[in-house]
Amino acid sequence: MNSQPVTVDSVAPVAVVDPAAPVGPVAADPAVLAATRAALAAEPVIAVVRAPRIPDAAALCAALAEGGITWTELTFTTPDVTSHVEQAARAGWRVGVGTVLTPEQAGRALDAGASFLVTPGLRPEVAHAAHAAGVPVVLGALTPTEVALAVDLGAAAVKIFPARAFGPGYFKDLRGPYPDVPLVASGGVNGGNAGEFLAQGALAVCAGTDVVPPDVVAAGDWAEITRRAKAFTAACAAR
């Protein structure tokens, strides 16, 4: 598996979004949507990092890539997350920011060089900010109605969270009314069930503590991160 940095394009400054403005369907760049979905289909694992500290974000991304995971999502639950994003982005890694709840957070993440944004639920203002910068956004949803709203808001993919609440079969059910919507399984996904989520209709899955345990990340044990990433991607490939 190629462990070279994934080059990402620089992003334009984020336009200021008025939270009080009417929110309707958002025009996302079709090329951005297509490229993001193709990249997820090719490498369907996003490592979601929640840790008390990250000693070297670029080294973390490199360790994950060595194990076959080139999508790294840092989150606003991690202290000083934007500094970590800046470090990884400068090194050329594809790094995004998750748990984005407000336009202000979206702006900070994009200014730091985030190449994608992820929300835990529907956040129209975050979608507006991402589209203004030409950056893909993965919006969180759970119900069929929320999935439709996420599509209307221009989501590059729809994160079904928490996935463990309904299990892999739920993705097969969603494929009925939404055969072409790219779904991402997040929450409770591990090496034992990731392959089944993919087999039942998820385009991609999020890997959390199975691959990036907070204590291992904080300790900077990159060899262990690579080992875990290889095991997880192997389990996905075996579906």
Question: Any overview of this molecule?
Answer:
The protein has helices at 30-42, 57-66, 81-90, 103-111, 124-133, 144-152, 169-175, 194-199, 214-219, 222-237, and strands at 45-49, 71-75, 95-98, 117-118, 137-141, 157-160, 183-185, 204-207. With 239 residues, it is of the alpha/beta class. The protein has an eight-stranded parallel beta sheet with strand order 3-2-1-8-7-6-5-4. Helix 2 links the parallel strand 1 and strand 2 (71-75).
Task: Explain briefly what this protein structure is.
The chain is α/β, with parallel strands linked by helices. It has helices spanning 30-42, 57-66, 81-90, 103-111, 124-133, 144-152, 169-175, 194-199, 214-219, 222-237, and strands at 45-49, 71-75, 95-98, 117-118, 137-141, 157-160, 183-185, 204-207.
Question: What's the rounded overall pLDDT mean?
Answer: 91
Shape: globular
Question: What's the number of extended β-strand segments?
Answer: 8
Radius of gyration: 16 Å
Low-confidence stretches: 7-23
How far apart the termini lie comes to 18 Å
Oligomer: single chain
Described by strand count, sense and barrel closure, the largest sheet is:
8 strands, parallel
Q: For the largest beta sheet, what order do the strands appear in spatially?
A: 3-2-1-8-7-6-5-4
Structural class: alpha/beta
What is the share of helical residues? 40-55%
Order of helices and strands: HEHEHEHEHEHEHEHEHH
Share in β-strands = 5-15%
Number of helices: 10
Topology:
Elements (H helix, E strand, L loop, with lengths): L29 H13 L2 E5 L7 H10 L4 E5 L5 H10 L4 E4 L4 H9 L5 E2 L5 H10 L3 E5 L2 H9 L4 E4 L8 H7 L7 E3 L8 H6 L4 E4 L6 H6 L2 H16 L2
Parallel strand pairs: 1-2, 1-8, 2-3, 4-5, 5-6, 6-7, 7-8
